[in-house]
Specification:
homodimer, 419 residues, alpha+beta, nine-stranded mixed β-sheet, six-stranded mixed β-sheet, elongated
Chain lengths: 419, 419
């Protein structure tokens, strides 16, 4: 039976070199599991190659981010990684940005940097051509590589030197427009986190090197988080450092302390870049005014690590269905004969119904197949064995809880499609 | 009526700053038209930002390439842009690669380059973990940024310093496996070209700096091409330089001379990299043998330019439907009232039926709308005007030929869906 179908991958063919031992280089559980599940490999310090399963997760995160950006009317662009020094001199950041900025010269001795962020590029892009108040507001975004030369890159995808971000930039006429753009982004970020089943809090934040005044961070709650936050069931949440200086929320509900991984940040930049770089539009009376800007980042590759930190067990990853490398792992406990045939048929039925499946008919011990399926962490496992097959049933296992139940072979696919 | 739908874009909101005049910086027609249609902008010499319409075209080319790679069983990965010098020293290319290789040092004075190609990275990636003949063959590919510090970057996307390529790498046990991989890639490349309605020829080629013996180039026929090729209706095609030294095809059909733009190249690398870098597998008898490798590149961003070179007229781009920024432009000749309402309704009907639409209800002269629609180059235009509407009809115009016919308003969507 032919197995090739866009939704169907076989473990025989898949390049996913899983590891039994925990690599010594990895401290964080997300780093350990992405290495062990054959999702990433280190190419240099803080620089990773994404193998097929890891890249699938990244692409799914990208797709969710893209859909939510498009849904609020943002327009996707792609800005260069190589940024000319001149633009950073205009904004004033070239001399003050630290050694995290990777700098290089081209063959003609012109200076460039590898973009850690794109405020200069986008401001220069629109300043000559976004001229009238009638064209505003406009929000442009990209999903692209970013570079930051960390002193001590570590923790796998959590703190790398080359990583993927979504960054959006809004251009409006006034503060009211910026408030509206900022609110739209906040809503989109909440939907993005919810679609990935992330336990998160939005907290007030310090806007740091980027500049501007109002900003908030989206924090995935996890023990491995580098930030300390305080939050309350009434919806209040803040960075502990900022919170200490403020009044406590008055709702009366108890406060919780937690650690958070920053997965996104939204900023009201105001006119910092538009004034420095002369990016203006004409208002109704023909007067030139600087754009009132916002910028909005999400760490795409970091989210993959944060989701693992939030949800895993000692056997491996537990992915939410929306970003899992596949929805279902179908395990044939025999590599040949009727068991393998029934498993292949089942996998194909699911694939044709639109479900992404990884089929394991390898000539391996059942124990090795169970271990790899748990490690990779697809939400569901369908286990086809000789004894069950004789009774006309397969076992359905939910990865998150380990719960299993049997279902008639002929109904297993429907069972899963309805779950 | 709400216009927001994933398939529907309005010219009012779209960031597509079209230009009436031809920019002096651009020699080639593709470069001129992508600038004029508001698809790209220059950020630095040979370095471009992709605006929303240009980026849509690139994403569609990427999708076609991805689908055809997946269909022949290739697995998508993502490899870093930042490549450590050590790996290039192992392959021997670090000291010999010219100034086209962009080099930099990190904060710890370690040397890196920005990858122009990824043979070293991929060979190092698999050499420790692809160990048994049972796992072979494997082909991994990525769609990613590449860098080449051209002496004189020019011609827009045709010869940039930062560009997007698909590069695939096959690992097989022997020459027979490589032959099969190479043939599979050739088939996929032909389907990719055909889906983009590209007039192309596959020609024997010199394998240049990458190394290896057998190689072929996919050439888009266009006057602006930098290569001279000779071909025959029997299927024979060759680079003129190579052809001069060979026997003429014996079919007897007349030979044609043409110019070609190289949009893809496939190489049989053999064991050049696997031997230099010690990348081996164990054969059935337990002997270590070097992988027999192939590599297969397609210039994604260059294809966008090549397609324009092949098909355009003095009014603008003429995109094939598979990569057009949208399938249909709906033009309302009035910005308000029943004309705008009918056009909006028509656009929405098409969008809901799965057709990508750009709706123009701007407060502009009809002439400006016609000019922009022709410049952007969607395959179809639907023109809604007051006189037609009174008679219950709209005009349907085919961009490629300029042919128009009228259709009843209520049937215009079906008319187009069936065409």
């Amino acid at each position: 039976m032919p197995t090739r179908h866009p939704n169907l991958t076989t473990m025989d063919e898949l390049y996913a070199p899983t590891l039994k031992e925990t690599p010594a280089e990895a401290e964080l559980i997300s780093h350990q599991l992405m290495l062990r599940a054959g999702m990433i490999r280190k190419t240099a310090s803080g620089i990773y190659s994404y193998l097929p399963l890891g890249w699938r997760v990244i692409k799914k995160i990208e797709r969710i981010v893209r859909e939510e950006m498009d849904a609020i009317g943002c327009q996707e662009v792609s800005l260069p990684v190589l940024q000319p020094a001149e633009l950073w001199q205009e904004s004033g950041r070239w001399p003050v940005y630290g050694p995290e900025l990777m700098r290089l010269t081209d063959r003609h001795e012109r200076e460039f940097c590898l973009g850690p962020t794109h405020e200069e590029i986008i401001t220069a892009l629109v300043r000559a051509e976004l001229r009238s108040y009638k064209q505003l507001p406009v929000t442009l975004y990209q999903i692209n590589l970013k570079f930051r030369d960390e002193m001590r890159p570590r923790f796998g995808l959590m703190r790398g030197r080359e990583f993927i971000m979504k960054d959006a930039y809004s251009f409006g006429a006034d503060q009211a427009a910026l408030d509206a753009d900022y609110a739209a982004q906040e809503g989109a970020y909440r939907r993005i986190c919810e679609r990935m089943e992330m336990d998160y809090r939005m907290v007030d934040a310090d806007s740091g090197e980027i500049g501007g005044s109002v900003s908030a961070e989206f924090m995935a709650l996890a023990e491995a988080g580098e930030s300390e936050i305080v939050y309350c069931d009434c919806g209040f949440a803040a960075d502990t450092e900022i919170y200490d200086q403020e009044t406590c929320p008055k709702c009366g509900a108890p406060l919780h302390h937690a650690r958070g991984i920053e997965v996104g940040q939204i900023f009201q930049l105001g006119t910092k870049y538009s004034e420095a770089m002369g990016a203006t539009y004409q208002d109704e009376d023909g007067n030139d005014k600087p754009f009132v800007m916002g910028c909005y980042g999400i760490g795409v590759t970091r989210i993959a690590a944060a989701l693992i930190e939030q949800k895993h067990d000692d056997r491996g990853c537990i992915w939410p269905a929306s970003v899992a490398p596949a929805q279902v792992a179908v395990l044939a406990l025999d590599a040949e004969g009727e068991v393998a045939e029934a498993a292949t048929k089942l996998a194909r039925t699911l694939a044709e119904a639109g479900v992404e499946v990884i089929l394991d008919t390898r000539a391996e011990r059942p124990g090795a197949k169970f271990a790899d399926a748990d490690l990779i962490g697809c939400p569901w496992q369908l286990i086809v064995g000789k004894r069950g097959l004789a009774a006309g049933v397969v076992e359905i296992k939910k990865r998150a809880t380990g719960e299993t139940h049997e279902a008639p072979l002929a109904e297993a696919a429907n069972h899963l499609l309805e779950s």
